[in-house]
Specification:
421 residues; alpha+beta; Immunoglobulin-like; Purple Acid Phosphatase, chain A, domain 2; 9 helices; 20 strands; 29% strand; globular; binds fe (ii) ion
Length: 421
């Protein structure tokens, strides 16, 4: 059976849904769609990365204009990636739009070989100026799947997030082979509800085990270099690793909030290694990068984001990396780094809670777990509303289920997340 990925049913018809589920496993193995995207990646106050997948040797362009100021479209040309990590008929193309205005809505349309298609259009809003106090909404997701209702993406889009952070299991190919990974990415990105989010919100991604390699995989995964190359070519993240240290990790700012997207796979000791002082979650170089970044950050809130939970997974998270966990908590505490919040995914349910070892940190250490946006009973996701314009800045965390109900709604002030002298 063949399925036209990009005309995939919205899934409201039970018969079509059953057909889709039956066909999904084979569909991934078949030829992927000729085109997929566009997707908005990293955005700053003056720039935005746009990603598109299209046939090799295409001419790919984009016409961009302010949303409410029609008639002044600028056209930019995409570049195809120089050395595609995956071997498909199409390749990823990216372009960095420049000279944009802060906090401005833009609309765009991608043009492939001179042809403009409404399905290749989208919108986005640029970031506030770096360091500027602002109010904005972050959406957090992880764990996607074909054949389950995708309604939560529509709910998420209805929440009008300023940016979207996704924390892994963005596909479940369970391999380090980029060609197979890309087929899975393309299949899932053709889900209309997910595609709508990718087209209309700046997206930032960190992998977890299933989109990095096999289930619960770690730094020993064979072929991880290929996986990293394929990952970077399929997202619009601002960076990947550092000059001396490979990995998918990077940081970025949104106004005066800084995000540290940490890679809990590439340098990870095996889950079943003895839980002693040799066991690492991030590896020493990435850990030092993180702590130095936190120490030097001028941001009001510093957000650490990773696929791995602090305590909820008994066999694949920080819970069984005691030395690494305590080293992280103690570094925040000893350096008196205020306003640190942790985001994670992985466990196919969502919650927000305070870690019982917060004494090491020096203030309530909040973990927002958002998992199973399309791969769980609850189909949940999280939003975090930042408001740094107030004298005491705040974050409001909500957990939204697929029924549209908010199952958590909690607010913390920066003064709550600050060391008391
Ligand atoms: Fe998952």
């Amino acid at each position: 059976m063949s399925i036209d990925y990009c005309n995939f049913s919205r899934g409201r018809n039970a018969i079509l849904m059953a057909l889709a589920i039956t066909a999904s496993a084979t569909a991934v193995a078949q030829d992927p769609p000729a085109t997929c995207g566009p997707m908005v990646g990293h955005a700053t106050e003056t720039s935005a990365i746009i990603w598109m997948y299209a046939p090799k040797d295409s001419t790919v362009e984009i016409a961009v204009e302010e949303d409410f100021n029609s008639g002044k479209a600028l056209v930019y040309a995409f570049d195809s990636v120089a050395e595609p990590a995956g071997d498909l008929r199409g390749v990823p193309y990216t372009v960095t739009l420049s000279k944009l205005k802060p906090l401005t809505n833009y609309k765009y349309r991608v043009i492939i070989n001179g042809k403009s298609d409404a399905a290749h259009g989208g919108t986005f809003r640029t970031a506030p100026s770096a360091g500027q106090a602002s109010k904005f909404r972050l959406a957090v997701t992880s764990c996607m799947k074909f054949g389950q209702p995708q309604k939560s993406w529509e709910l998420l889009l209805g929440d009008k997030p300023d940016l979207h952070v996704t924390l892994g299991d963005t596909q479940y190919s369970d391999t380090t082979n980029p060609t197979i990974q890309w087929k899975h990415h393309l299949r899932y990105r053709s889900v209309p509800e997910f595609s709508a989010v990718l087209r209309s919100t700046p997206n930032y991604a960190m992998w977890d085990d299933h989109d990095y390699g096999p289930n619960n995989s770690d730094g020993s995964a064979a072929g991880k270099e290929n996986s990293l190359a394929g990952w970077n070519q399929f997202w619009g993240n601002p960076a990947s690793g550092t000059v001396g240290t490979p990995g998918a990790f990077f940081k970025f700012s949104w106004g005066d909030v800084e995000f540290f997207m940490v890679d809990g796979r590439y340098h990870r000791s095996p889950d079943n290694a003895p839980d002693d002082d040799k066991k690492r979650m991030l590896g020493d170089a990435q850990f030092n990068w993180l702590i130095n970044g936190l120490k030097n950050s001028k941001a009001k809130f510093k957000v650490i984001a990773s696929g791995s939970t602090l305590a909820d997974s008994k066999n694949d998270g920080w819970r069984i990396y005691t030395f690494a966990r305590h080293r992280l908590f103690d570094a925040i505490g000893k350096n008196k780094i205020s306003g640190v919040v942790y985001l994670s995914g992985d466990i196919h349910r969502s919650r927000v809670w305070t870690h019982p070892e917060s004494d090491r940190v020096g203030y309530p250490f909040i973990e927002v777990i958002s998992s199973g946006v399309a791969n769980s009973k609850t189909l949940s996701y999280a939003t975090v509303d930042f408001d740094t314009t107030k004298s005491d800045p705040s974050i409001q965390v909500r957990i939204i289920h697929g029924d549209g109900e908010a199952h958590a709604d909690k607010t913390w002030k920066l003064s709550d997340l600050t060391h008391k002298e």
